[in-house]
Amino acid sequence: MRRFFCFTLFFVLVTFTSSFLGFDSVAAPAPQVSKVDLEKLRDNLLNLEKDIAIISIKAEAQSNRITDLGLSATHQGNLISWTGVAISLIVAAAGLITFFSAKARAKEEAREASHIWFKDNSAELNRQIQDLQRKVNSIVESIDVDHAQFKNKLAAVSAEFDLAKKGFPNNSQQGASRDDSFLSMENEASPQESSLSISAHQVTLDSGSLSVTQQVIDVEKILCVEDYNVAAAPSQSARTLFQMAVEMGRLHGPEQKISGYDALIQRFEKDTTPEVQEWVARAIYFRETEIGKLHGPERKIAGYDALIQRFEENTNLAVRKWMARAMYFKAVEIGKSHDPAQEIAGYDAVIQRFKADTTPEVREWVAQAMYFRAVKIGNVQGPERKVAGYDALIQRFKEDTTPAVLKWLARAMYFRTAEMGKLHDPAQVIAGYDTLIQRFEEDTTPEVQEWVARAMYFRTLEIGKLHGPEQEIAGYDALIQRFADETDPAVRKWIARAMFFRAVEIGKLHDPAQGIAGYDALIQRFEEDILPEVRAWVARAMYIRALDTGVINGPEKEIAGYDVLIRRSANDTATEVREWVIRAMYFRAVEIGKLQGPEQEIAGYDALIQYFEKNAIPEMQEWMARSMYFRAAEIGKLHGPEQEIASYDALIQRFADDTTPEILEYVTRAETRKVSLLQRNESSTA
């Protein structure tokens, strides 16, 4: 019995092992359904990946809002410095564009008026033709004489410029390139056309109508030296020389502009007239601006020093504002090439020199110096010192009413509150924002209103963290209502942001339909807005609206929502708008694939890839890689593994040198999937 049991057990083991190793010649063939099940499982996994991607994207809206909570702490330092500089540059550029367009328009209108006049008075002119013909010889002779005299005067001007250039010391510097834009911001600095034109008119009769041929000798932007000495007052002569220098630079480059400034400085070097001194100070400042462009920051700093030293004891208001400007930008330039301590010392010099000055133009530079002094100290010594610096500015200018000063006061109050958030609890941050909002409650200055809107927005975020979404929604409502009729671009972007996250919170608190109504309100209000930042919020609202519509009404309505966004914004040139177009195109392809099959899904991916190739948006490479990966998977369903492998190869080759983690993820997936398909092919072949 015992032997029988052992023999039986041995036979069972041998049989089982043979079956396991494939030696059983009579083993039943593996059921074919297993391969189908594997294919279904693969498809399910791919669909699951897509669904996960959709869920992650839908979560990005909330993630973006959470990211905004940190903006008040991160938008510091150099970002704020360059923001102020960028605003100055934009205003300056607008001034230059307005000036030159107005000048061109005036010329065109004058030309049209002259044509109309000749047409209306042709009959009278015809009666005078005979007299004009008799006088033409004497007119031409007179022109020749005038032209000869003019050439002599032009030679005298050139001689004076050469003399002045030799006599002016060449040890100065240029102001920061951003300061050259201040030229166009000063009305008196806008170059006016000064020209001496000598004209000869030849009048002929052609087929009973009058044709007038005008020959004009136009010598640009030159006035005679005798006019400076005799006809014009010194201040007018100085102004004209300044304008001539600007025009010489426009026509012949920075070196000629510097020569023009040299002529003005040399000519009025010892003049003590306040109006003349202003033009001398202005010329020195912009002379150093040009020299700095040519020779670098060290020469620029030396130029500022020359201006500061020359007018150190001057009490003239018009000169003091150029002194303050030069001292401020000297500190800025020192900060670029030296350590922060020297830059702070430069700001201290401005503050100390003009601490008792009541002139608005000077106080602006003091406020600016105090602001960036606080920023630099905070970067070196921590947020507590930065807060103390802001406090000093706020205390000094808390009662000021000058718009140029108030914008720096509002900025300091805002970032003081942001820094307090790093050191204290949210309640104190909210109190800081409340102080700013209350201080400028009645102010209508655009530069100030921007900071009020920003404070109301981040106050709302802090309220939401403490008291929940209902209070957060109420905060957004307050911001939207306060600026309901605001048209300033810097404020509009905060209104759009508030309307977007209000819709997000309402959708979470109540139901998606109310969230969609909130997105509709945003889209309707800003559908024609030209500001890129605002258009981006409209595109984002349309995208999330499409997602929520799909949740309520199904994929067909979701696709329709994506189509609206794509049609509206596909040709937009703003990168922040194109981002949402690409997202919409991707998820449109996914949803189309669910409804209509892989061919339509592949067509959707192809549309996205073609759009990406046309617009070349580096920031959206991840979506390109994602589309190429899932396109390959769908091609495998339709056309087999060989074409699927070829599609993966295209993805791998395209992003072979890319090290971005999000893109590497899809490259790795493609490589893994390719290896799996190749192994399966080898196994089936064997």
Strand count, sense and barrel status of the largest sheet are: 2 strands, antiparallel
**So what's the overall shape?**
elongated
Mean pLDDT across the residues is: 75
Structural class determined from secondary elements: mainly alpha
Give the neighbour order of strands across the main sheet. Answer: 1-2
Please tell me about this protein's structure:
- This protein is elongated.
- The chain is mainly alpha-helical and 686 residues long.
- The chain has a two-stranded antiparallel sheet.
- The protein has helices at residues 2-21, 33-58, 60-68, 71-74, 77-120, 122-127, 129-167, 182-185, 225-231, 234-252, 254-267, 274-295, 297-310, 317-337, 340-353, 360-381, 383-397, 403-423, 426-439, 446-467, 469-482, 489-509, 512-526, 532-553, 555-569, 575-596, 598-615, 621-639, 641-654, 661-685; strands at 196-206, 209-219.
List keywords for this structure.
3% strand, 2 strands, two-stranded antiparallel sheet, 30 helices, HEAT repeat domain-containing protein, mainly alpha, 686 residues, elongated
How would you summarize this macromolecular structure in one to three sentences?
The chain is mainly alpha-helical and 686 residues long. The chain has 30 helices and 2 strands. It has helices spanning 2-21, 33-58, 60-68, 71-74, 77-120, 122-127, 129-167, 182-185, 225-231, 234-252, 254-267, 274-295, 297-310, 317-337, 340-353, 360-381, 383-397, 403-423, 426-439, 446-467, 469-482, 489-509, 512-526, 532-553, 555-569, 575-596, 598-615, 621-639, 641-654, 661-685; strands at 196-206, 209-219.
